[in-house]
């Protein structure tokens, strides 16, 4: 049977929680034969992730595919899933997250309708929910007011995005050929590549659809998660790497024709640079501030207009305040945003 939707599940030493992720897709789709689940073992070496993946494949051979690769990192595992995807659409679900069954059924009904009508939609957007492990609370991120609802639209139809509601990997279901045509510059052994995934393909998406359901459940709060403040601070060099890739992907003022998409991408890139600025200050690396300055210098040389927007707009100004007092103010603003948004 032709596959309508392929799920890529990158797994690295994930045996403790991957079953919940896989079963949520199987049960939520009613074990549909037009769904594909690609479980990518990214060279796990501390548990039986690969054996579990193969067991799922043995139990559901027409739905689940187990794939092994030498350890390459999250982005390379995403790309291995894409390489093996047979579905018209492709969605990534991290192995410690899961999907809501009712929402998945609605998404599948929509994608099947597109297929039956021969309607091309390049990107389907849905909501995601932060599932906070420390207090059991939920925080849903939706795009109502920012995107037209339940209709096909283009980037020129979108509205304003608040800083709490950017389009992240969790909310995206791409048409597979959009990701393949033009490629994705995913660096190996690098965290935070989801920012590349939710940025570089956007200009290739000509038609979009927003389905306002809380599909993706994002488990957050474990001490070893990449978004944990201490972990992120220790990996600030990964964010520098991601920021450079995003920077060099486009001259946004010249390459992006849609004014609204250009504005969105400028603002999102500015947030990435602000994260680099804040966490470089939190880092105990002796070269952190020198590396941050090098990043800003590279941006200024690559595109002075992008530099001015990212460095001297409100977000850039408050995340790069000079002097010790300014640094304290910057970190204070970050802590306040952290409490309001609860993003790590």
Structure in words:
The chain is 45% helix and 17% strand. The protein has 344 residues and is an alpha/beta fold. Strands 1, 2, 3, 4, 5, 6, 7, 8, 9 and 10 form a ten-stranded mixed sheet that branches.
Keywords:
single chain; 344 residues; alpha/beta; ten-stranded mixed β-sheet; 14 helices
Give start-end ranges of low-pLDDT stretches.
336-344
Order of helices and strands: EHEHEHEEHEEEEHHEHHHHHHHH
- Kindly state the percentage of residues in helix: 40-55%
* Beta-strand content estimate: 15-25%
Instruction: Provide mean pLDDT, rounded.
Output: 91
Number of helices: 14
- Gross morphology is globular
Structural class: alpha/beta
Distance between the termini: 41 Å
Number of strands: 10
The whole-angstrom Rg is: 20 Å
Major beta sheet summary: 10 strands, mixed
Task: Produce a short descriptive summary.
The protein has 14 helices and ten strands. The protein is an alpha/beta fold and 344 residues long.
């Amino acid at each position: 049977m032709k596959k309508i939707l392929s799920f890529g599940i990158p797994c690295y030493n994930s045996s403790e929680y991957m079953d919940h992720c896989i079963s949520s897709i199987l049960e939520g789709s009613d074990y549909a034969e037009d769904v594909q689940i690609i479980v990518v073992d990214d060279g796990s070496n501390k548990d039986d992730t690969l054996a579990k993946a193969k067991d799922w494949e043995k139990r559901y051979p027409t739905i689940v595919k187990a794939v092994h690769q030498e350890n390459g990192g999250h982005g390379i595992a995403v790309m291995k899933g894409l390489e093996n995807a047979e579905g018209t659409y492709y969605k990534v679900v991290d192995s410690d997250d899961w999907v809501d069954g009712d929402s998945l059924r609605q998404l599948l009904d929509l994608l099947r309708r597109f297929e039956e009508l021969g309607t091309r939609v390049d990107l389907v957007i849905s909501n995601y929910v932060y599932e906070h492990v420390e207090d059991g609370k939920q925080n849903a991120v939706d795009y109502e007011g920012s995107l037209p609802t339940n209709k096909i639209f283009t980037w020129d139809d979108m509205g304003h995005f608040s800083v709490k509601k950017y389009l992240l990997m969790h909310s995206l279901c791409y048409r597979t050929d959009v990701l393949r045509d033009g490629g994705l510059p995913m660096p190996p052994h690098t965290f935070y590549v989801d920012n590349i995934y939710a940025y570089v393909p956007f200009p290739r998406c000509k038609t979009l659809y927003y389905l306002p359901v809380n599909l993706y459940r994002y488990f957050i709060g474990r001490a070893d998660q990449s978004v944990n403040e201490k972990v992120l601070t220790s990996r600030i060099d990964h964010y520098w790497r991601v920021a450079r890739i995003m920077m060099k992907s486009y001259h946004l003022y010249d390459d992006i024709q849609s004014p609204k998409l250009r504005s969105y991408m400028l603002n999102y890139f500015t947030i990435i640079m602000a994260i680099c600025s804040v966490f470089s200050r939190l880092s105990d690396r002796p070269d952190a501030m020198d590396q941050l300055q090098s990043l800003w210098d590279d941006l200024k040389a690559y595109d002075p207009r992008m530099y001015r927007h990212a460095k001297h707009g409100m977000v850039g100004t408050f995340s790069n305040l000079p002097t010790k007092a300014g640094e304290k103010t910057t970190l204070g603003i970050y802590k306040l945003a952290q409490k309001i948004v609860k993003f790590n």
